Amino acid sequence: MQGKNLPLRVATLLTGLLECLGFAGVLFGWASLVFVFKTEHYFEELCESQARLTGNVTEQADCKAQDERFSLIFTLASFMNNFMTFPTGYIFDRFKTTVARLIAIFLYTSATLTIAFTSADSALLLFLAMPMLTVGGILFLITNLQIGNLFGKHRSTIITLYNGAFDSSSAVFLIIKLLYEQGISLKASFIFISVCSAWHVGRTFLLMPRGHVPYPLPPNYSYGLCSEDGPREAEESNTESRKLELKSKEFVSPKEEIPGPGKQREPHSFWSYVFSWRFAWHLVWLSVIQLWHYLFIGTLNSLLTNLASGDRVLVSTYTNAFAITQFFGVLCAPWNGLLMDRLKQKYQEEARTTGSSASAAALRSAVPSLALTSLLCLGFAICASVPVLPLQYATFALQVISRSFLYGGNAAFLTLAFPSEHFGKLFGLVMALSAIVSLLQFPIFTLIKGPLQNDPFYVNVLLVLVTLLTLVHPFLVYRECRRKESSPEVA
């Protein structure tokens, strides 16, 4: 059965990768799209009124009100990208794959059609379209992450690969910008993206499960084209999967599998995991690093305009360079997953020989990933804080590597640190709570543009210091793993 289903599983993997790469995270190519919107005179009336009030014609080249409007749209859309992950994660857990994907397709298609038929006169519709686009995209990602369960030991690698593809999809807006410069209208590009929804529908019914992909995978599991019956088979697969999970030694050592005399394994509720220190520090880790990335992406056009002294050709060149580097996220992210998979196998082999906790050994494999992501963000933050235009090439490279490690590592850590039955809810909740922190990007942008008079030095120094806090998370996880490995009965 494994060999018989292999072509279908590979097709699911590759088409899912293409879906994440072409559609899921396009919002984060915002800087490229803003360049097109400004060329199309979106919100330009704010610049005109400001120029009249100040009597300064050059003010229009660096219009604070226009930049703030675009920053507000991105803030709202990026907030919805994370905040809506919790309800969409619940929808995915409760109503399963097909329903979740149909909702995603509806939101995504509605958004792309709205953008296609938006003009400078109706630019306010972007406040509706961009959040819908990003919520549809995150649902595509959530429903595709479960594909990692089809490939066993390579699960973390595939999860990080998909998150990398999510990051790289921001290059789609660069392609739209380049096509626009060659004479293809914004309307035509977004209508084409809307038509691609037919492909999403076909993939939903032919190459995706109706329910969830269980983990560990039952030997007779079938789905999509190979599945001839519905809920009953899915329920049988889930039941068998739960039996396998009790026997699985990937996460549980022999000492932990069989409770001692008079002891009964006590199931933990969802909220007990939510209020654990492990979840709290992971939230801090994700929120701080993500705030840096959102603030940088949302204000990049304004930053480049200032550093290039308003030279549009130079701004366009650096915008293209940034968008091109984003494409390499799909190549960077799997290295994080490979690192975690290799370390997990190594630590669990050691756990089997020593009889220590295999679950702690698996969790320990996430520590280097968490620490490396924090260090990459620290380097990116320092480079972004130096107001030298050529140095931004290094900033772009560090930013894309850090971001591809961030989201892949986040999803992989949650699969290792918490039970799989709570993954959708915990993934959604951590993203939703981090979204609230990400709202700080707009007041920070307003503070820089206003009282600080376009000088972000003090804000950047403060954020760099806060970034050092993220190193606490991998240290505490490492300390807990060492304690459990030496005393598995405490686990």
Automatic annotation (TrEMBL):
This is Equilibrative nucleobase transporter 1. It comes from the Eukaryota. The keyword Cell membrane does not apply. One of its GO terms (cellular component) is membrane. The keyword Transmembrane helix applies. It comes from Vicugna pacos. GO terms for molecular function: transmembrane transporter activity. Keywords: Membrane, Transmembrane, Transmembrane helix. It is found in: Membrane. Its main location: membrane. The chain crosses the membrane at residues 12-37, 70-92, 99-117, 123-147, 279-297, 317-340, 361-388, 400-419, 426-445, 457-478. It is a multi-pass membrane protein. SUPFAM superfamilies: MFS general substrate transporter (SSF103473). Gene3D superfamilies: MFS general substrate transporter like domains.
